[in-house]
Write a structure and sequence with these properties.
The protein is an alpha+beta fold. The protein contains nine helices and 20 strands.
């Protein structure tokens, strides 16, 4: 029981939480967020409340907590009665996870040189393919560490597609829905289609809807080098926030433009290196110096930005912060492109991958629904 009592006042509803703290909810907000059958369509779960007809000075006559402490009933001057669930109040107050959150921040493992995972998160292809619990375990690996290895993966395009679609349909971009990745690909002009070293970066800084997940399945390898590199961008951000909050503020505020150009294609988007959500929590790291577009700032701010950007790069290029994974046939890698930077060591010989992207909303939807259904 998270709510002990409620008190109606002239200005709003005072909620007494189980920890003895209090919070006041305005009457306008409570009318707008009621979730009884007259306020929310029970079939579509969309709101029926006409927000814009609510008087700004609305006030309730009374309110009471039900015996089970699950609902608050509110009695309005026009004889209307609405209810709002205690769970909703707890969610918006941050007392428990809301419907959008996948997990508590404290459940995630942020890793740099001083706290690398002792065992890399992994799951077998068969476990993912055979059960919904396997899919949830896979997604929880990604949520916790930012990535997961999939072992015993069949090295075919069909198997890659089947694995990806255990999460959701793949995201279509200019590279297609599913795509090969090797130095033999000639129809895109991108550094990924070379044998060169690639510094850690996030993909699609030139898309406003950058891919949420990226997956590679190794089809063929006959050569040397070419290890995949991962860096925890969230861990870097947390380190900078702790050590240089001034630089963190700059990277959270200054929008950095990115672009991708080839024949008949010119993509462009911009966002800060650290994008925060409405709670002020870090939601997305975007860092790709290859694709950064020209832009200029006022002289003092420009100097500060370059200092902050260089500080992020210093951490991302520190090989002690890297996880290197030598992908070979039978091994797939999936990672959160909003959290982890990825790169590649230079290589010689053949290195053929087949992969895809997933939209962030799609994979999060899959995880939420699995959490709900498998917890029943």
């Amino acid at each position: 029981m998270l709510i002990k009592n409620v008190t109606a006042t002239a200005t709003g509803l005072i909620v007494l939480w189980a920890d003895q703290s209090t919070m006041t909810f305005s009457w306008f907000w409570l009318m707008d967020h009621s979730n009884d059958p007259q306020s929310v369509n029970s079939q579509t779960l969309q709101r029926n409340v006409d927000t814009f007809s609510i008087p700004l000075d609305i006030a309730a006559d009374s309110a009471q907590l039900d015996a089970a402490a699950t609902l608050v009933q509110i009695n309005w001057p026009n004889q209307q009665i609405t209810t709002i669930s205690c769970l909703r109040l707890c969610q918006v107050a941050g007392k428990t996870l809301d419907d959008e959150q996948l997990s508590e921040t404290g459940s995630k493992t942020f890793w740099l040189a001083d706290n690398m995972p002792e065992t890399l998160p992994s799951i077998s292809y068969h476990e993912v393919m055979q059960s919904e619990q396997g899919v949830l375990n896979w997604l929880e690996n990604i949520d916790t560490y930012g990535f997961s290895i999939v072992t015993q993966t069949v090295a075919t395009e069909q198997a890659t597609i089947a694995l990806a679609e255990r999460i959701a349909a793949a995201q279509t971009t200019i590279f297609g829905t599913y795509w090969p990745l090797s130095s033999e690909v000639k129809h895109h002009d991108d550094s990924a289609y070379t044998t060169d070293f690639l510094a850690p970066h996030t993909d699609a800084c030139y898309y406003y809807n950058a891919a949420g997940l990226q997956m590679f399945n190794c089809m063929e390898f006959d050569g040397s080098g070419g290890e995949s590199v991962l860096v925890d961008g969230f861990a870097i951000a947390r380190r900078i926030q702790a050590e240089r909050p001034d630089l963190y503020e700059i990277l959270s505020r200054v929008a950095v433009p990115g672009h991708y150009k080839e024949t008949a294609v010119h993509l462009a988007a911009e966002r800060p290196t650290f994008r925060l959500d409405r709670r002020g929590e870090l939601e997305q790291v975007s860092f790709n110096n290859y694709d950064r577009s020209p832009f200029i700032l006022e002289a003092g701010e420009q100097s500060q930005f370059y200092q902050a950007y260089a500080e992020f790069n210093r951490h991302s290029m520190n090989q002690d912060n890297w996880i290197k994974i030598a992908l070979r046939p039978g091994t797939a890698l999936i990672f959160n492109n909003w959290r982890c930077l990825h790169g590649r060591m230079g290589y010689s010989g053949k290195r053929n991958f087949f992969g895809c992207y997933h939209d962030r909303a799609d994979y999060q939807s899959r995880m939420r629904t699995l959490q709900q259904t498998l917890s029943l």
